[in-house]
Structures are given as structure tokens and as C-alpha cells.
């Protein structure tokens, strides 16, 4: 099969993306629908992660926890991590710099994208910690960026993991998110 057809696909950019209804992500110009809406379990786990992060960051004015926000990586790649921590000043419609810590709560419809495309992008962009959370199994895989590549730091269920965010360190108790 010839590869010529690939170039017939529309290639979208941020200017297109901002006009779309609903939640989307854009990877290399290809749109991915963030639907259906996350399950109750997914939302509950994500809310719990946000709560734990907020509690842990209370004494750290340099860092803040965010729920999905546009991270404009390039003109044609815009992602919305489920939970993230930034330790740099940010304002405006979207992030332009890598978060220091990202949690993606896996769902059947997004698991492959989270485990492959986003993993590669987060690694390339220098996200220090990437956590893949599997609510059904009550487990999480924690990756730490070492020399530009992700190394698995831990497989956790109810353990606590220390994250060194730079300006501060947090002790994240995974037993609190399930």
C-alpha cells in the first residue's frame, strides 16, 4: 500500500482546535476525542488525586496542582493531562512549558494513547514524573525521567511515593485516591 494517501488527511493546528466543541487532544495534527465523558470511578480517582496534591502542595507556593488544562506543546500537538503539577509561573489560555508531574487516569478508550503516544511526548518534553493510574486494578505505575528516558520508579497500590518537584518534595499516599 502506498503512503501517498497519508497526505490527504487534514492536518489540524491550535487555531482549528480552539474552535471545536467538546474535549479534544491534538497529536501531530491528528484530533483525538476525549469522549465519552470519564466514568464515575475515573472522575472520583482524578478528584482524589487533585485533593491529595493540593494538600501536599499547601506549603509550597512555587508549585500548583491543576486539573485538565491545555498544554500547547507545538502548533499541532495540544494535550490535556488528567492531573498535573507545575512549578513555574503560568497564565493565559494554555501551558507552554512542561509540568513537573503528570497523572493520567486510564480508561479503556484512552489507555493506548496514555501508555504510548503521551508517554513518548511527556518523555521528550521533559516531564519529570509520569504516573499511569489504573482505577480498576487500584494500581499505578510511576515513571521518573533519568537522562532523558523514563525509568519505572515503582508499581504501587496503597504505598506512598516521594516526588522531588524541585522547589519542594511531596509524599503522595496512593491509598487515599481509590
What would a concise description of this structure say?
By secondary structure, the chain is of the alpha+beta class. The protein has helices spanning 14-17, 40-56, 111-115, 117-125; strands at residues 24-27, 30-33, 64-66, 71-74, 77-79, 83-86, 101-105, 129-134, 139-146, 149-156, 160-164, 169-173.
Poorly predicted regions: none
> How many DSSP H or I helices?
4
**What is the name of the CATH topology?**
tt1808, chain A
Strand content: 25-35%
Largest sheet: number of strands, sense, barrel closure = 6 strands, mixed
Structural class: alpha+beta
Backbone CA Rg: 17 Å
Assembly context of the chains: single chain
Reading the helices and strands in chain order gives HEEHEEEEEHHEEEEE
Which superfamily, in CATH terms, is the homologous superfamily? tt1808, chain A
Average predicted confidence as pLDDT: 94
N→C terminal distance: 47 Å
Using the alpha-carbon principal axes, give the shape.
globular
Report the CATH architecture.
Answer: Alpha-Beta Complex
Specify the CATH class.
Alpha Beta
Residues in helices, as a percent range: 10-25%
Would you count the extended β strands for me? 12
Widest beta sheet: strand line-up:
3-6-7-8-9-10
Number of domains: 1
Amino acid at each position: 500500500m502506498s503512503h501517498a494517501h497519508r497526505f490527504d488527511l487534514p492536518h489540524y493546528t491550535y487555531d482549528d482546535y480552539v474552535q471545536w466543541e467538546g474535549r479534544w487532544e491534538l497529536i501531530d495534527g491528528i484530533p483525538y476525542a476525549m469522549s465519552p465523558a470519564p466514568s464515575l470511578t475515573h472522575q472520583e480517582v482524578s478528584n482524589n488525586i487533585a485533593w491529595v496534591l493540593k494538600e501536599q502542595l499547601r506549603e509550597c507556593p512555587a508549585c500548583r496542582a491543576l486539573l485538565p488544562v491545555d498544554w500547547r506543546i507545538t502548533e499541532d500537538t495540544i494535550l490535556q493531562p488528567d492531573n498535573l503539577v507545575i512549578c513555574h509561573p503560568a497564565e493565559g489560555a494554555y501551558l507552554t512549558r512542561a509540568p513537573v508531574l503528570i497523572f493520567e487516569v486510564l480508561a479503556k478508550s484512552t489507555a493506548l494513547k496514555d501508555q504510548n503516544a503521551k508517554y513518548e511526548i511527556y518523555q521528550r518534553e521533559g516531564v519529570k514524573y509520569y504516573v499511569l493510574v489504573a482505577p480498576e486494578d487500584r494500581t499505578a505505575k510511576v515513571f521518573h525521567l533519568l537522562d532523558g528516558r523514563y525509568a519505572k520508579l515503582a508499581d504501587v497500590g496503597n504505598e506512598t511515593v516521594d516526588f522531588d518537584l524541585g522547589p519542594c518534595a511531596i509524599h503522595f499516599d496512593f491509598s487515599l485516591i481509590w
